[in-house]
Amino acid sequence: MNYLEFRKIAGNQHVIDMRNVVNYFGSFDRRRLYEWQQKGYITKITNDFYLFSDVDVNEDILRDIASKIYQPSYIGLESAMAYYRFIPEAVFQTISVTTQRNKFFKTSVGDFRYRAIKENLFFGYRAVEAGSDHFFISDPEKTILDMFYFLASTDRRVVIESLRLNFFEIRSNVSLEKMAGYLKLFSSRKMNKAFQHFKEMLNAES
């Protein structure tokens, strides 16, 4: 197989999953991958995942990569908070939540961090279409609850206040009723207290 044939088959997706390529062709000489990297046609992300080198990497593509290279996972925590404009700070790595072990990938296109959560708490996310790509991201309510879940347990109120939350965006996009429904699934007094602190802050900023 030459590169033009490979590009024709895999070109509809920015992120190349070599497992799908092998399934399609039945076999594949992986020496071609090294050759095409040397020629600057493709860029390696991690084992089995590559990116066409002429792709202009943006935030959506980074989210797409994050959703593919370590599964199951969804974009969450600070990355989802920034996506919904709940916090003012830029996030310089793509952070996801997974049922697998904590993991960190430092790649040529960006850094990807995964935080482990219990399987029964792996819910409250959705698929987002972004051109020919897609990614999974926690919905606004689950994003905030996941932040509470991973906060240091010493003084959640202080830590929540330190997040410098954008309460205007939160009031516009978050259902407290839906959040309370999700909260029951955590079955945690500490999470309940964090939720109460959050509501008090939300009311204070009204």
Describe this structure in words.
With 206 residues, the protein is an alpha+beta fold. It has helices at residues 3-10, 18-25, 31-38, 59-69, 77-83, 140-150, 156-162, 167-173, 176-186, 189-204, and strands at 15-17, 42-46, 49-52, 73-75, 94-98, 103-106, 111-116, 125-130, 133-138. The strands form 3 sheets. Strands 4-5-7-6 form a 4-stranded mixed beta sheet. A hairpin with a 2-residue loop joins strand 8 and strand 9. Helix 7 (156-162) packs across helix 10 (189-204). The radius of gyration is 20 Å and the shape is elongated.
What would a concise description of this structure say?
The protein is of the alpha+beta class and 206 residues long. Helices cover 46% and strands 20% of the residues.
Largest sheet: 4 strands, mixed
Query: What's the mean pLDDT score?
Result: 89
What best-fitting shape do the alpha-carbon axes yield? elongated
Helices and strands, in order, run as: HEHHEEHEHEEEEEHHHHH
Strand content: 15-25%
Helicity range: 40-55%
Kindly report the spatial arrangement of strands forming the biggest sheet.
4-5-7-6
Secondary structure category: alpha+beta
Q: From the alpha carbons, calculate the radius of gyration and give it in angstroms.
A: 20 Å
**First-last Cα distance:** 62 Å
Low-confidence spans? none
